[in-house]
Design goal:
The chain is an alpha/beta fold and 132 residues long. It is built from 5 helices and 5 strands. 34% of the residues are buried.
């Protein structure tokens, strides 16, 4: 029997209130070698999915109904059982202040919309240690 170097494919939760953006993020995630385990349209559902699935990565829109991506990040970072979850925030807020708030909330990366799905795939692959 061979032993795997990794415990299996890396799993990702995607959350964005725009269905078209979720599709683009999912394409990029799959291209990066990730398995999409949940696609949510609001922050409360995203947080529930992260808690339930405990993915390797969560990609969160900053501006979502019910709970923002920033609030989801802060909540995840406050839960020690979710320490291993990497967090990426996507936002149209391109200024340094918005980026600073996003990173201070616990995000590992803060990426600007609009984004190139190809560039997002490269970033995700690098984050998760996959060769693109």
């Amino acid at each position: 029997m061979s032993t795997a170097v990794e415990a299996g494919p890396k799993r990702v939760v995607i959350a964005d209130d725009d269905a078209d953006i979720r599709v683009l993020i999912a394409i990029a995630a799959r291209k990066a070698g990730l398995v999409v385990v949940a696609e949510e349209s609001d922050g409360v559902a995203a947080l529930d999915a992260v808690r339930r699935v405990q993915p390797d990565l969560a990609i969160l829109d900053v501006s979502m109904p019910a709970m923002t991506g920033i609030e989801v990040c802060r909540t995840v970072r406050g839960d020690t059982s979710l320490d291993s979850v990497r967090l990426v925030l996507l936002s149209a807020g391109a200024d340094d202040r918005a980026r600073g708030i996003g990173l201070a909330s616990g995000a590992d990366h803060y990426l600007i919309k609009p984004f190139s799905p190809k560039a997002l795939a490269v970033t995700l692959a690098e984050m998760m240690g996959h060769a693109e």
